[in-house]
Hints:
- Helices cover 41% and strands 18% of the residues.
- By secondary structure, the chain is α/β, with parallel strands linked by helices.
- Strands 1, 2, 3, 4, 5, 6, 7 and 8 form an 8-stranded mixed beta sheet that branches.
- Helix 1 (2-22) packs across helix 2 and helix 5 packs across helix 7 (183-193).
- Mean pLDDT is 79; it is low at 22-69.
Amino acid sequence: MKRKSWLAWLIMLAAFFFVINKEPQLVTNTATTVKQTTVKLQPYFYLVRASINNRLKTPFAKSTAQAASTDATPIETPLKNLTTSNTYQYYFENDVPANVRQVFQQAVTVYNQTGLVKLTPGSGTTNKNKVTFFVYDKKLTNPASQTVELGNGGPTTLAWNHYAVNSGRAGLNLAYPHIAIKKSVAIHELGHALGLAHSNAESSVMYPLDQGLTTLAPADLAGLRNIYDK
Ligand SMILES: [Zn+2]
C-alpha cells in the first residue's frame, strides 16, 4: 500500500515535468496572469498619454466647435470619462527661476480657492496626482504666424478602468519673458495640467489667446466640476 502510493506520486511528478517540458508556454502564461493581477491592484493597467505637442498644433477652431454644445470649459482627452483624485502635489523643476515660481504659486492659489482641487507642495509619489512646473526656451519659428507660444501644459494619465492618476505639466516659455511670465498665463497652463482644454468663450481663462484674465469663469468652474466633482 505504501509502496503503491509512492509510485503514484512518482508517476504524477513525471507527468508534471513532462507537461512543463512539452508546453513551456503554459507555465509562462500562468506567470503573466499573476503579474497582471498584481498590476490591476494599482491603477497602471493601460496608458493614455496626452500629446502636448499635438494639442498645440491643433487649430483653435477645433476646440471652438467642441465647446459649442456645453457651457462648461471642455476637458482634455486624457481625463475624459475618467475619475481622478482632486488632490495634487506640485513641485518646480530645478531651473525654474523665482519670478516664474511666483506666478505659478499665484495660479495654485487661484485653483485652491475654488475648493474643487487641493494642491500642496511636494514631489509626489508615482500613484498620486502631481503637477510639475517647468520652463523652456522656444523662439518663434514662423514669423508669418501672428502668435508666439507663451507656455504649454497638459495632463498625462495612467488609467485603470475609469480611475486615472494624472501627472500634469505646466510650463512657461522663457523666450518671451515679458509676455509669458504672467499670472494669467500660469493660470491657463495650470488649467491644462489639471485637465481643462481650450474654450472659445472669451471670458474663460482657457481661451487660446492670453487676455490677462486671472479669475476663473463660471464655465471654467463647471469644467473643473466635471473632472473632480462627480
Ligand atoms: Zn492653451
